[in-house]
Amino acid sequence: MNRWIENIAMMIGRRPTRPKPEEQTPAMRELMVFERQPEQVQRRKAFIKEEAAHPKLSHKWRNRRWISIIVINLVFLLSYKLDIQVVEGALTASRVFGFHFADLNSSLQVMLAYKEVLINLLIGTGTVFTVYLLFGGRSFCSWACPYHLVSELAEKLHLRLARARLVKDHPLHRGTRTVLYGVFALLAFVTGYTVFEVINPVGILSRALIYGTASGLLWVAGLLLVEIFWSRRFWCRYVCPIGLTYGMAGTIAPVRIRYNSSRCLHEGKCRTVCLVPHVLDMTKMGYSKDVVNMVGPDCTRCAMCLDACPTGALTFDIIGVSDPVQPQRKRSRAP
Known about the structure:
By secondary structure, the chain is mainly alpha-helical. About 55% of the residues lie in helices and about 10% in strands. Helix 4 packs across helix 11, helix 5 (about 105-115) runs parallel beside helix 9 and helix 8 packs parallel to helix 12 (about 215-230).
């Protein structure tokens, strides 16, 4: 229960902290003693130097995600254009083979605005909640959301400009997203209007792709410019309540990212590429409470950290399906 509370607190904005030695398991404390031995420190530095000289270049999971996003959104487009009615609607609310699907946050906004519980939205919300309860709530962000794809491309441009020292990232407090979640909910209740849906780039892009509606695309372009020139991943990290809602839904999801500290070089490549790097603070030397940990619910399951990790310290885990991990204590960790 304590771990669950910690994950929720981190998701709504609390900064990760380094655990005290007494908060770590005996196995983790033993591993820390082993890793601090001079010969192991030198070995790890040599591995890091070798990996930097000959970096692992993998885009396996990125390519799978991009294909997933494109296919999911093409299904909506082709179903509408060809009038085959397999999928009706857009990502915020749809029917798939007759089953209602409704975005959790959009449904909440509608119910607060109209002051009533709509049965179709309730059914659709229940369906979506069940799906993301199984697969991990924020997997929607990286495997289905069209804005995630264009934002990822904008991020690449931002990083290039940052390396050239033409722009600088301006991170905000992650609690901003939690405050805005409440603000948008209050606005819907007070005004009777779904204010968030007017500026929601997910719905805007989904409708633009399916129906050809250009309304709101200027706003999306503005967001991307903010992310390129001012704040990396501004919308997803600091504003979007959808990610927070799905994170709550996925707190007990069986599909997670598993971290094995005994295989880690602690060089930080995973955190560099991560959309929500605070969930990988455990990969810092001494920050893990146990040898094997599960990454928290704010993780989008994008697997960019898996592509970046040179030693396989990060892997997908499915409760009851994945093989148990045997920590690799007291041996070298060559990639």
